[in-house]
Design brief:
Layout: H1 10-17, H2 23-29, E1 31-34, H3 43-50, E2 54-56, H4 73-85, E3 94-97, H5 110-114, H6 119-135, E4 140-141, H7 165-180, E5 197-201, H8 220-227, H9 229-236, E6 241-244, E7 248-249, E8 252-253, H10 258-268, E9 274-276, H11 284-287, H12 294-304, E10 309-310, H13 314-324, H14 330-346, H15 357-362, H16 367-380, E11 382-386, E12 398-402, H17 410-413, H18 428-435, E13 440-442, H19 449-458, E14 461-467, H20 488-496, E15 502-507, E16 523-526, H21 534-542, E17 599-607, E18 610-611, E19 617-625, E20 631-641, E21 652-661, E22 666-673, H22 675-678, E23 680-681, E24 687-688, E25 692-699, E26 706-712
Parallel strand pairs: 1-2, 1-10, 2-3, 3-4, 5-6, 6-9, 12-13, 12-14, 14-15, 15-16, 18-26
Antiparallel strand pairs: 7-8, 11-16, 17-19, 19-22, 20-21, 20-25, 23-24, 25-26
Helix pairs in contact: 1-14, 2-13, 6-7, 6-16, 7-9, 10-12, 12-13, 16-21, 18-21
Bound molecules: 1-deoxynojirimycin.
1-deoxynojirimycin binds near residues 58, 98, 199, 278 and 475.
């Protein structure tokens, strides 16, 4: 049988296999089932009844903060054995799991990873996660999440790369390359890679009121220019699967929209992987009340372009009849199956269906991954304020280490962690003691506020560790108030009253409001939920072993009243919009982050200043480290199309580079802006490049004031 021959190309093998398949065998490929781990006896029956294209390994629909058993390698191999040996054609099952920011070694939450502004580091991170998965028999991760978010109340802002389409696109490509690697000339991925899934297509991050799963209304113009770019980049990078979102978008549930899934994603963008629904989002078409029953739900979703159904069984029960009655065409079914089989061949599943137990043991020693994690984690942290008290001076003798995050472990990992596999992180106290054995570290063993205040009075400097729990983020965990949980602002205020230098660390899965904390802090380090090596990385920064250079991938509002909040707003017809009771400017702008050194950005040159359509300009600046220590700066380039037929943002990020400079060192940094950077989706969704003037700014956040311009003829 040709399809079993690994020396043939992926395409040849799919072409050979597809015509051999019966209707039932084809439909089985379109089904992802959940097999409860505790009922092994039922597995074969269940597979016979509903098919086995794929198996999801999460045990609950609201995974992320729930401790759950994850299938072991023998269990995975046993299911694979059934698929390979007890079915006529021996088509392997693809096992999927939500590996969102690491499997055993947990990296910062994706929002924190975005703050690195470092695609190479992100690629390495996802590559490590892929290696871990591959060796444990997990073939597919439901990541990266590419939802743009303008509302920090939304609990899933934690899981994406922030508010900016350009940064989101760069991070999407890095994550996908890290997971999937490159294809060889016959179309195969190399070993140690897995299948990525760009989700949640599309607009899920725009849930009304920040309430998860809620309705979204996004004009086609904004959908294409703001929400689509990360998905477009993912498709261009060859992402193998896309997950359709839960929400109702513009009057159609995203999992039942032919326009979104087939016209836009598959036909216009040319996506040739397969679409999987979100958990039960096919059956939920009934809850949205666009389908009267499961059969209608199956018909709408499959016709719209959902190739595989996650967990619910509308396809299992109704697709065969729908095809036999001619309501769904055999071409559509073949198209779905071809897409799914292509990915299975590409992953090498037909040739290496089983996880190698020996290889899985090789990663018992995670030390290399820990080193990588510590590095990227320190790169993700953002210094938001520093009156000069950080890094901690070498002669500090007594540190008061207080606050609710001094002894946290699980909360440091953030949401979306498979607890049973994740390694236990050090606490902040353990990490600080390990790095400063000669310093006296005072803690409040009972965690009481009066105790903390007394300790603060005795110390040279106070480190106050604040934050929110991992369980306050993630799926279905939206909040109405962005303040830190009760008591923390009061604690900051009371401790500051002791008059000691105060450095605040915040561990959180979203932007929280810092308006009432900031005035009391001499320094503030935003550490996100930083993962397995989070405490060690934070200590590296506090001690100055690492100079912070992370930048905010989202705007930090002063309060909830500023939501929706994002830097790339449009020009208005009247004066800049305002509030009477709060400044309209956020607390911290997109792209903001300090360093222990200073950088000067000067001498902006645009070359040439006039170009014909299709040509590029180079914009360059000199960046100088004018401070006393080496450091890294994220140099950011923003663009404005001065006059356009459709309204456009006042400025948009169109380039960034994270560069390292020694004290006194200068470097020319150059950005190339080409037709892609200058174009946008205009009337009727067409991709347009309009002649006219452009302005460009380069600086170290979105407020950059060093300006140039050019003319597109
Ligand atoms: C629902 C979530 O929305 C999605 O992101 C996740 O991948 C699936 N559940 C599977 O757990």
């Amino acid at each position: 049988m040709k399809y079993k021959n690994p020396s043939l190309s992926v395409q040849e093998r799919v072409n050979d296999l597809l015509p051999r398949m019966t209707l039932e065998e084809k439909i089985a490929q379109c089904i992802q089932i959940y097999i409860p781990p505790d009922h092994p006896g039922e597995i074969v029956d269940r597979i016979q009844a509903v098919g086995l294209g794929s198996r999801i390994l999460g045990a609950v629909s609201l995974a992320g903060n729930v401790s759950q058993r994850t299938a072991g390698i023998e269990d995975l191999n046993e299911i694979q054995r059934i698929a390979m040996n007890e079915f006529r054609l021996g088509i392997p099952v693809i096992h999927g799991l939500d590996v969102i920011h690491g499997l055993r070694v947990i990296f910062p939450i994706p929002l924190g990873l975005a703050a690195t502004f470092d695609p190479d580091a992100i690629q390495k991170t996802y590559n490590i996660a892929a290696e871990e998965c591959f060796r444990l028999g997990i073939h597919w991760s439901f990541a990266p999440m590419l939802d743009i978010a303008h509302d920090p109340r939304w609990g899933r802002i934690v899981e994406g790369f922030g508010e900016d389409p350009y940064l989101g696109a760069k991070m999407a490509v890095a994550a996908i390359k890290g997971f999937q690697g490159e294809l060889d000339e016959n179309g195969y991925q190399s070993q140690d890679h897995i299948l990525a899934c760009a989700k949640h297509y599309i607009g899920y991050g725009s849930a009304e009121g920040g309430r998860d799963y809620n309705t979204a209304e996004i004009t086609d113009h904004t959908l294409r220019n703001i929400y689509l770019p990360p998905f477009r980049a993912a498709v261009q990078a060859g992402v193998g699967s896309v997950m359709s979102a839960f929400e109702d978008l513009n009057g159609e549930p995203a999992s039942g929209s032919r326009y979104l899934l087939t016209d836009l994603l598959k036909e216009e963008l040319g996506f040739n992987g397969f679409v999987i629904s979100d958990w039960a989002s096919v059956a939920e078409l009934i809850h949205h009340r666009v389908a009267a029953n499961e059969r209608e739900a199956a018909q709408i979703a499959f016709d719209a372009g959902v190739d595989m159904e996650m967990v619910t069984e509308c396809y299992a029960h109704h697709l065969a009849d729908l095809v036999m009655e001619g309501i769904i065409s055999m071409e559509r079914l073949d198209d779905a199956v071809r897409r799914i089989l292509t990915q299975k061949f590409q992953l090498g599943l037909f040739d290496h269906p089983y996880a190698d137990v020996q290889k899985s043991l090789e990663i018992r020693d995670l030390s290399a991954y820990h080193i990588a994690a510590r590095e990227v984690t320190a790169r993700s942290m953002v210094l938001l304020k520093n009156n000069g008290i950080l890094p901690l001076p070498g002669d500090v003798r007594r540190i008061a280490l207080i606050g609710p995050f001094v002894n946290q472990r699980r909360a440091l990992l953030g949401t979306w962690v498979n607890d049973v596999l994740a390694d236990e992180p050090q606490t902040l106290e353990e990490a600080l003691r390990a790095s400063c054995p000669d310093v006296e570290i005072l803690t409040a063993p009972n965690g009481l506020m009066d105790e903390m205040i007394m300790i603060a009075a005795e110390a040279d400097i106070v480190l106050l560790a604040l934050g929110e729990s991992n369980a306050r983020n993630g799926e279905y965990n939206s909040i109405a108030s962005l303040n830190l949980p009760a008591g923390q602002e009061e604690l900051a205020q009371a401790v500051a009253g002791m008059g000691k230098p105060l450095a605040v660390l915040v561990f959180a899965g979203r932007p929280v409001t810092l308006t009432r904390i900031l005035p009391h802090a001499d320094a503030l380090l935003y550490a996100w939920h930083p993962g397995s090596m989070g405490a060690a990385a934070a200590v590296d920064i506090l001690l100055g072993k690492v100079n912070p250079a992370g930048k905010l991938p989202v705007t930090f509002p002063r309060g909830e009243g500023q939501i929706p909040v994002h830097y790339n707003h449009k020009s208005t017809g009247r004066d800049h919009p305002r509030y009477l009771d709060m400044p309209v400017e956020p607390l911290f702008p997109f792209g903001f982050g300090l360093s222990y050194t200073r950088f000067e950005i000067t001498d902006l040159v645009v070359e040439p200043v006039e170009i014909p359509a299709g040509a590029s300009v180079n914009v360059s600046v000199t960046v100088t480290n004018t401070g006393e220590c080496k450091g890294e700066e994220v140099v950011q380039c923003y663009l404005q199309d001065c006059v356009s037929r459709r309204t456009r943002p006042e400025r948009e990020l169109k380039g960034f580079q994270r560069i390292a400079l020694q004290p006194g060192e200068s470097r020319r940094v150059e950005f190339t802006l080409g037709p892609d950077e200058m174009s946008y989706y205009g009337a009727g969704g067409s991709w347009v490049l309009e002649p006219g003037a452009f302005k460009v700014w380069i600086g170290n956040d979105c407020k950059a004031s060093l300006e140039g311009s050019f003319l597109l003829k």
